[in-house]
Amino acid sequence: MTISMYAASVPVFRQILNSMSEILTKAESHATERKIEPTALLQARLYPDMFALSRQVQIAADFAKGACARLAGVEVPKYDDTEQSFADLRARLAKTVAFIESLPQDKIDGSEERVITTSAGANSKTFAGQTYLTHYALPQFFFHATTAYAILRHNGVEVGKRDFMGKF
Question: Please, which residues have CB within 8 angstroms of residue 122's CB and are 6 or more apart in sequence?
Fold first, then answer.
């Protein structure tokens, strides 16, 4: 039995993006209840050379929208990285979920062999669609989503595995 490219992408991204939004709500409540300046959490890092929480969330959203757009053969929407608050980050996640849900399943299914080229700075990589999704986009997405979760957990926000997994 095979799994469709749509089933391996959109519902997976949606599940974790929605759980990230819920975790950000818990983080905001945590900051309010403990009289912590929200910026302290939004700019928190696991290590000085790693991205801060807000950037981890932005990148996770970017991988979700980028992967789904490329698999569907449509232009990747560009988002400005201007989020300054928990509400801003939740809005970005909601916008990302709305975008990936707008993509027709039949545009993504059948993209296993679609040639996908990505570039980050001077580096460029070319993949077949299935390899791109399973070996590049999903691992990148989960790295940044997990790091965002870990930053908040490390800073005392009471979240656990069930929060990370979300509703499915």
Answer: none
Give the structural domain span for 126: 10-165
- Any domain includes 37: yes
Query: How far from 115 is each of 4, 31, 121, 163, CA to CA, in Å?
Result: 17, 45, 20, 35
Give the CATH number of the domain where residue 129 resides.
1.20.120.450
Report if residue 4 sits inside a domain: no
* Residue 5 located in a structural domain: no
Backbone angles phi, psi at 45, to 5 degrees: -135, 160
pTM over 0.85, yes/no: yes
Q: Flag whether 1 is in a domain.
A: no
Q: What is the pLDDT along the chain (168 residues), one digit of tens a residue?
A: 689 999 999 999 999 999 999 999 999 999 999 999 999 999 999 999 999 999 999 999 999 999 999 999 999 999 999 999 999 999 999 999 999 999 999 999 999 999 999 987 788 999 999 999 999 999 999 999 999 999 999 999 999 999 999 988
Give Cα separations from 75 to 33, 58, 71, 164 (angstroms).
Answer: 42, 18, 10, 29
Q: How many domains does the chain have?
A: 1
Terminal CA-CA length for the chain: 21
